[in-house]
Amino acid sequence: AKAKGRNTFHFYSQELNAAANERLFIENELRNGIRERQFEVYYQPQVDSRNQQVVGYEALIRWFHPKEGMIPPTKFIPIAEATGLIVELGAWVLQEACEFAARLASKNLKNNISINLSARQFKDANLVSTLDKIIKQTGVEPKRLHLELTESMLMGHVEAAILQLHQLKALGVSISIDDFGTGYSSLSYLKRFPVDILKVDRSFVKDIPEETNDMEITAAIIAMAQKLKLNVVAEGVETIEQVEFLQNNNCYIVQGYYYSKPVSEAQLPALFERLSHI
Ligand code: C2E
Ligand code: CA
Ligand code: CA
Ligand code: CA
């Protein structure tokens, strides 16, 4: 038993070591990657399931590392957050997404663009002026922009968060609560935040129609959003059954692999071609 314990510990510490090394590697490569512009913003359509029209896109960052290939955001966003590099990277995403929105507008396409904000970015005192500058410089209509934040980002310093939200909203942008239902927000707080959209988290959608509990939670979130006069977007929708369940519960704007994975701007014509056959 002793030997086994030692082995387990050895194995464990090797694993921890590997994790620490990977972290360090990503941290170093991040700085370099930002300098060398190894990032690209992909866009995942948000579709009105009643008519297959793309009403908006969520901007999702991608890192194409010259040696490692694609490094998913779940691997590097937390590290960018911890090191503060997210402020610079996040500002770059805002700029790219607004330029994309402006290009769409120049083709008379009135799509919304959802952009993820990290906790650090949201707390940053310069966020409002940075965004204001980008809006003016790109000429994007602020009402096209939907900023996505999570419940946990709002719950820490509630008064400060409410103030920041009001300042962002004064620019004319909308606010979305991402991953709704997975955090700790109480419903009474939710009413105090000036938010416009709830995004039903994928964890509630993914096992519809097998999990009746998830179906009830999803239906309840949609009903509550409607009572609070919030728009609702369902995330992670992969099947026609899920689309139909959501329709039957009055949620029509959906995002997920059923319609499309996130794609580069260059892949959008192919996306529209596919959608026209659904
Ligand atoms: P998120 O904001 O919840 O984004 C949705 C994630 O779900 C995306 O993963 C998307 O590709 C994935 N997804 C969409 N539809 C489906 C589906 O039908 N099935 C499945 N299995 N997955 C689906 P992605 O792009 O890997 O991003 C992961 C997370 O990284 C995002 O979660 C967000 O928290 C963060 N992230 C991505 N881009 C940015 C960014 O520019 N800034 C910040 N701060 N965070 C970002
Ligand atoms: Ca999001
Ligand atoms: Ca989400
Ligand atoms: Ca998520």
Short recap of the structure:
The protein has 278 residues and is an alpha/beta fold.
Protein traits:
278 residues; alpha/beta; eight-stranded mixed beta barrel; 52% helix; 19% strand; globular; binds calcium ion; PAS domain S-box-containing protein/diguanylate cyclase (GGDEF) domain-containing protein
Q: Rg from C-alpha positions? A: 20 Å
Main beta sheet: 8 strands, mixed, barrel
Structural class: alpha/beta
Backbone shape? globular
Structure in words:
There is one protein chain. This protein is of the alpha/beta class. It contains twelve helices and nine strands. The chain has helices spanning 2-35, 73-83, 85-106, 119-123, 127-138, 151-155, 158-170, 187-192, 202-205, 212-227, 240-248, 268-275; strands at residues 39-48, 53-65, 69-71, 112-116, 145-150, 174-180, 197-200, 231-234, 253-254. It has an eight-stranded mixed β-barrel. α2 (73-83) crosses α3 (85-106) and α3 packs parallel to α5. The radius of gyration is 20 Å and the shape is globular. The site of one calcium ion has 4 residues, from β6. Ligand C2E binds at residues 44, 59-61, 72-74, 77, 90, 93, 116, 118, 178-179, 202, 236-238, 255-257, 262. It is found in: Cell membrane. This is PAS domain S-box-containing protein/diguanylate cyclase (GGDEF) domain-containing protein.
Q: Which secondary structure elements does this structure contain, and how are they paired or packed?
A:
Elements: H1 2-35, E1 39-48, E2 53-65, E3 69-71, H2 73-83, H3 85-106, E4 112-116, H4 119-123, H5 127-138, E5 145-150, H6 151-155, H7 158-170, E6 174-180, H8 187-192, E7 197-200, H9 202-205, H10 212-227, E8 231-234, H11 240-248, E9 253-254, H12 268-275
Parallel strand pairs: 2-4, 4-5, 5-6, 6-7, 7-8, 8-9
Antiparallel strand pairs: 1-2, 1-9, 2-3
Helix pairs in contact: 1-2, 2-3, 3-5
The chain binds ligand C2E and calcium ion (CA) (3 copies).
